[in-house]
Design brief:
Blueprint: H1 2-18, H2 22-26, H3 31-41, H4 54-69, E1 73-74, E2 81-98, E3 101-103, E4 109-110, E5 121-123, E6 126-130, E7 145-149, H5 156-164, E8 169-173, E9 199-202, H6 204-207, H7 219-224, E10 228-230, E11 234-254, E12 259-269, E13 274-276, E14 279-281, H8 284-305, E15 313-320, H9 328-335, E16 344-350, E17 367-371, H10 378-392, E18 395-397, H11 415-419, E19 425-429, H12 448-467
Helix pairs in contact: 3-8, 3-12, 8-12, 10-12
């Protein structure tokens, strides 16, 4: 019996010794491994990974092959793909007449293909609301077509005010005779039917016809133009076509044995800008770097599992698409969650971690911007600081947490859709650079040594959250914008 007891204790001791620790596990994250994954994700073969294209599908296939290789569980009904459909409006025939005179599309007027009238719009009067129009106006504009002049501020504020006040449509008179706003390009959406408000922009010379002019008015003449009703005949009709763009988020997870109903998410977006005018937008940093990071972190956890590691709560690795179209892939997930959001302890989102911000004034080879950690949970910043003090030793720059930050980065990546649902979030970011959203965002400009430091730090943070006894508290005030 004594020999059996000793043998049991020896076997138990050996088994415990074989369980890998986080420091050893993190060594699987290397510059070489990150470069191996990014060399595929940001290659010419992926064609810039635009949502709904063959390039996006090739990138998704690569991600799925890696998660399968790591023996991670498929995240959606036995599949690694969570499919969703985007809808994009395209213009067909468009006709506009002002006082019987036809206008030429893309010369005299421009419009989003999404913002077409539900049927032909006709009127014999417009209301000119000037340059400073807002939703505080006391004039009844319900069912009317409004005309406003463009200023330096965002004209969309006028359009939104018109919609709020119940107007039928709005026309913006441009400051020039040239379209400088890419107004004709509509963004995809998740909804099958567009609910956009009808509006378009007219050139400065053609716009004078809306208020009875026979020549182009000067800026001063527009400024002096009396507000009110003008007798103007407008006929506007458009043929609209809606194109379906099939897309998908990629989801894999490492199952827990203890807290099997709790989840930690590690996310990135794998889509980018695609090909424009025959030129590939590679997106090596945005967000090839984040996507390669998630895959590398997943491989490090999978390797740790071979050495006895089991997380206390499930670790979900998700790469979303449609980010560049308006955070649409993460929005779809937040509205159709596979795992309960109320049991999701946090989302660690990685979007651009491979470069150096040229404006950074500290140690540019040893920093990362951390954004959003204090918004929802008082635990998250404490964990971040603890892990960094113990193993990361990075400069943690929190400048973009300032509510007055004009860049508003907190609202511009996929963690935000988790935050809107009350999930604690942390966004890792290196800042922008001259190659941001340019075809020159290529792999040879990635600083893989710095990227390795950042990704190891994120891995250590994920390990800490995945193995702690309790979910993160949700104890910070949260309004409906996630601020």
């Amino acid at each position: 019996m004594r020999k059996l007891l000793l043998a049991f204790l020896l076997i138990t001791s050996i088994a415990q010794a074989q369980v890998i620790d986080v420091t050893t596990a993190s060594k699987a994250i290397t510059a070489a491994v990150l470069k191996e994954h990014l060399s595929v994700i940001a290659s010419a073969e992926m064609q810039g990974r635009e949502t709904g294209t063959e390039g996006e599908r090739k990138a998704a296939a690569y991600l799925m092959s890696q998660y399968k290789k790591f023996n991670l569980k498929a995240g959606y009904n036995g599949n690694y793909r969570l499919p969703f459909t985007l809808y994009k409006d395209e213009l067909g025939k468009s006709e506009l007449k002002i006082n019987g005179e036809p206008a030429t599309l893309d010369q005299d007027y421009w419009m989003y293909s999404a913002n077409v009238p539900a049927s032909t719009l006709k009127t014999n009067a417009i209301i000119f609301v000037g340059n400073d129009f807002n939703d505080k106006i006391t004039v009844d504009v319900k069912g009317k077509i409004l005309v406003a002049t463009e200023n330096e501020e965002n004209s969309m504020r006028k359009v939104m005010a018109a919609q709020k006040l119940g107007a039928a449509a709005m026309i913006i008179v441009a400051k020039t005779n040239t379209n400088t706003s890419n107004l004709a390009t509509a963004r995809p959406r998740l909804a099958a039917k567009s609910t956009s408000f009808p509006y378009f922009k007219v050139s400065k010379s053609f716009g004078s016809k809306l208020v009875g002019g026979s020549k182009a008015f000067s800026d001063q003449e527009w400024a002096d133009m009396p507000k009110g009703v003008y007798s103007t005949n407008i006929e506007w009709s458009v043929e609209q076509q809606t194109k379906e763009l099939p897309s998908a988020d990629v989801i894999a997870y490492m199952p827990a044995k203890e807290k099997t109903d709790e989840y930690l998410f590690i996310t990135s977006h794998y889509d980018h800008e695609g090909i424009k005018n025959g030129v590939i937008y590679y997106g090596a940093d945005d967000d090839g770097s984040g996507t390669a990071s998630v895959v590398t972190i997943a491989s490090a956890f999978a390797n740790a599992a071979k050495h006895g590691f089991v997380p206390k709560r499930n670790i979900v690795f998700m790469n979303v698409s449609g980010e560049e179209k308006g955070l649409l892939g993460s929005k779809y997930y937040a509205e159709h969650p596979v795992f309960p959001l109320e049991k999701t302890t946090a989302d660690l989102n990685i979007d651009m971690v491979g470069r150096i911000d040229p404006t950074y004034t500290g140690d540019s080879n040893n920093y990362v911007y951390v954004i959003g950690e204090e918004k929802i949970s008082s635990d998250l910043q404490k964990i971040t600081n603890k892990v960094n003090n113990e193993v990361g030793h990075l400069e943690l720059d929190r400048r973009f947490n300032d509510p007055k930050d004009p860049n508003r980065f907190y609202y511009r990546s996929d963690h935000y859709n988790f935050a809107l649902k009350g999930v604690p979030v942390l966004f890792y970011f290196n800042g922008t650079h001259k190659d941001y959203h340019q075809p020159s965002d290529t792999i040879e400009k990635i600083n893989f040594d710095l990227m390795e430091k950042r990704v190891r730090f994120i891995f250590n943070t994920a390990w800490e959250i995945a193995t702690r006894d309790e979910m993160l508290k949700r104890d910070m005030p949260l309004d409906m914008t996630g601020r």
